Amino acid sequence: MTEARRMTATRGPAVTFHFEGQPVTGYCGETLATALLAAQVSAFGLTREGTPRLPFCNMGTCFDCVVTVDGQRLVRACLTEARDGLCVTRHEAT
Amino acid sequence: MMDLAVIGAGPAGMAAAIAVADAGFSVLVVDEQARAGGQIFRRPSQEWGQRHGNYRPYSWAKDLIERFEDHPGITTAFRSTAFGVLRDPDDHAPLRLALHTPEGGRLVAARRLLIATGAHDMPVAFPGWTLPGVMTAGAVQSLLKSQKLLMGRRLVLAGSHPILLILAEQLLEARADIAEIALARGLPNFAEMIGAVPALPGHVTLFADAFRAMGKIIARGIPVTRRTIIDGVEGTTEVTGVRLAEVDEGWMRTGKPRHVAADLLVLGYGFNPSTELARQAGCRMQWASDLGGWVVAHDQTFQTSVEGIFVAGEPTGIAGAERSWAEGQMAGLGIAASLGVAADPTQRRRAGCILARAGRFSRVIQTMFEPKREALARLSGAEDVIVCRCELIRSGALDAALRKNPFLSTASAVKLECRTGMGPCQGRYCEGTVAARLATTRGATIPESGFFNANFPVKPVPLQSLCDLERSQEEHIPANTPATYPAASR
């Protein structure tokens, strides 16, 4: 797994959301991409061949970080802030 | 109705917005990020307690951001995607910009538009480039700078752009373990350094930073290899290793690839201007390989071929933050003039000076670091290499389509034939590879392949946002009224 680690810094208060049914803790001011990477998630989504994807560009242009958030598909995790109570699932391409 | 809608809150967008708002016009600035600054000045969230980030070496950045954020005449729409320009070429109705905002779809009418959409890392397709563990330099840098997140246990940096050295220094400061920095070209030679001298005034810090970075990298004993290119990555579900190969001056492989153990490969081969909105709006494009490929054509006032639509910053050619800032100022003065308020000559002259100086500098950098596009496209040659990451179109399928249709001669036609560029990214990450492969196959040049057409919506948005546009159109926003606040002091 591609390791990701939070550096020492002042962050916002902790927030908890769910990814694939599991609770994930992040911090206010983090993006979903950051919180999921820091949680060592191995796939934000699966291609239609079943291969995993993680963020590639982190600037909203590649769409490799897309996830489903509260039922809304194709939401870019790198542009979405981590908030309490979000229900996030992997993007599964069809 | 707004007098001006700006797409992109980077150096160009901010500078133009200030100039036009200073002249007393209403300005809306749209950006996908949560804060102003663009990719170059990405900073942590406001919630983390600091207004500013580290903008080195750009001494003007802090003042620019403050003037922008504090300006009473500028309205902002952050976390919002501009996904299309609606216009009727036959009448003089205002331009309309379609937005996907956190509150849903919104149609904004504006008398002028400024496209200041910046750039993104230039993608390079090679075996395994879609695996988790391959990231662009911009991704790794923005996670580090604005999210304080360090990616990777053991890193390989591969590319040709000086950003790799600056990034390497930042990574070392964060105690990253860098296995190797592989540069496709040699370091600038003596003649090139002499050639760069005229560009130096005003940019000493930039050069100094790159040299300082290099010094630190060498002092830490990090191997920096030259004439070395990425050949592929190893791993089935994630990167476990990187293959690097020696290349000649034309970046063509000369030796057998060697293996380096790593879990993160960082790519920095340069940048592409982000021009899909300009393309969709019908702005004329032109090819300039040393400026990043397809760029938006414009006149001296930075107006594009479409009346009322202006452009500034990287979409006119990759030239760096300083040049973008200067172009933003000039475009802002041009827009204000087109709306009826001429710039005072001193202001115009000053912006012109910065523009000329920044231009000299960036030309030197660009010529030094222009990517060898045909050679990079060859890295995707093997049959099973994915060319289009979204639609999973492989090299073999692309070749088959070209063989089967000997008269296919444009990248857009290839897109229609085999779906390269039809996925969510809308071709941003395969256009370069497709165009170069097509050109090589047909014995033509890359510009002859043309560019992917961009259609409305230029980015995928929920259907609801499209439906919202209808309703939003009925909202009546009063047309421009004279300035109700004093112009900011200059």
TrEMBL record, chain A:
Domain of life: Bacteria
Gene Ontology terms, MF aspect: iron-sulfur cluster binding; oxidoreductase activity
Keywords assigned: Oxidoreductase
Signal peptide: none
InterPro entries reported for this sequence: 2Fe-2S-bd_N, 2Fe-2S_ferredoxin-like_sf
Pfam families per UniProt: Fer2_4 (PF13510)
Name under which the protein is recorded: 2Fe-2S iron-sulfur cluster protein
